[in-house]
Amino acid sequence: MPGPTGRDPRNVNASVIFPAHSRDYALLRGARLPFWGILPSDFQAAFGRPLFLRPATRYKAAVEGGTVTRSIFAAIILAAIAAASPAWAQKSGWYLGGEGGWTALGNQEGHLPPRVFPQTFDNGYALGVRAGYRFGPWRVEEEFRHQSNSLNHFARHPAEGERGADMLMTNAIYDLDIGLPVSPHLGAGIGLVALHDEAQVAVLGIPSVDDDTEWAFGYQGIAGLSYEIAPEVSADLDYRYMATTTPRFTTAPGLIVDGVFTGGKRFASAYGIQQVLLSLTWHFGG
Asked: Which fold has domain 87-284?
């Protein structure tokens, strides 16, 4: 009787499981396995099935074996999906945290037409707080952070001063559960940033280049790791890159540079900063 493929099981070729010729079965039926001296009948008595199957039985075994293989494969996929389902999906509630860390502002360019002058900043610090709500793997939060970097050089001359920022950001963060106590997360944020710029270049006899605060639109990318210390407490280690639209600061009244009066003029200077932040968060509910 033809099988599901339309082929007679008696003519199934070697690509199925075993050679289908009845002569093979007849020869192997009485053969002893080398080295062990075990007869196929001994195998059947021990395991409840023959060692060598007749052609038609082999066809049935091949079909059933394929079904079992597909079932196992489906079970593996379902188990993987279940394992990938984040544990955070069962949690929700408010949270409050504090953060602090290292900042690198590096080199920025000031533009006071027709001149362009470099500004170099030392590494600095950041301190902040955040509060938000977690639902499943998502966190939505408000963050306030202050950060500051000391001015090192202005127009290639040693200088003093700083560039500080006070920001209020709205962040969205997605936690990826990988079945470990540590879970990675990715996020982004936007908000308002108050930038304060202050510079003194004593070597040029300039007591104050500027001392001004400007508001700008800020945005940041977030990537980090979370560790659940306890059900109510977690620690985050984040890398963040934060930047703003270009602020324009006003120079000090009466400023003269290289014999040119530049007081009361606005100059543009970019703000793009890297941060490594450590935070501790308390969770309420969930």
From this structure: Porin (2.40.160)
